[in-house]
């Protein structure tokens, strides 16, 4: 499955790909990740697809995960 992740505080849009329920790939679709955001990007990426809903709840509307079809 593929998800679009919007980080509102730095206007970055990421594309996350999961294969077999596990994180597989990260692409930056808009903006740039620099400094502290780049150092801590792992905190924003759930290692398992099944955790996305839980992580969305912990971030509120600061970080938005949206499933897409391609």
Structural class: alpha+beta
Order of helices and strands: EEEHHE
Total DSSP E strands: 4
Fraction of residues in H or I helices: 10-25%
* Alpha plus pi helix count: 2
Topology:
Elements: E1 2-7, E2 12-19, E3 22-30, H1 35-39, H2 52-59, E4 63-68
Task: Give an account of the 3D structure.
The protein has 70 residues and is of the alpha+beta class. 19% of the residues lie in helices and 41% in strands. The protein has helices spanning 35-39, 52-59, and strands spanning 2-7, 12-19, 22-30, 63-68. It has a four-stranded antiparallel beta sheet. Strand 1 (2-7) and strand 2 (12-19) form a beta hairpin. The relative contact order is 0.28. The mean pLDDT is 91.
Distinctive features:
alpha+beta; 70 residues; 4 strands; 4-stranded antiparallel sheet
Compact overview of the structure:
With 70 residues, this protein is of the alpha+beta class.
């Amino acid at each position: 499955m593929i998800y679009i992740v919007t980080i509102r505080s730095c206007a970055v849009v990421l594309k996350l790909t999961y294969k077999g329920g596990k994180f597989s790939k990260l692409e930056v679709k808009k903006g740039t990740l620099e400094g502290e955001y780049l150092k801590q990007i792992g905190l924003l990426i759930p290692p398992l697809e099944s955790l996305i809903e839980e992580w969305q709840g912990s971030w509120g509307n600061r970080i938005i995960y949206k499933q897409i079809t391609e």
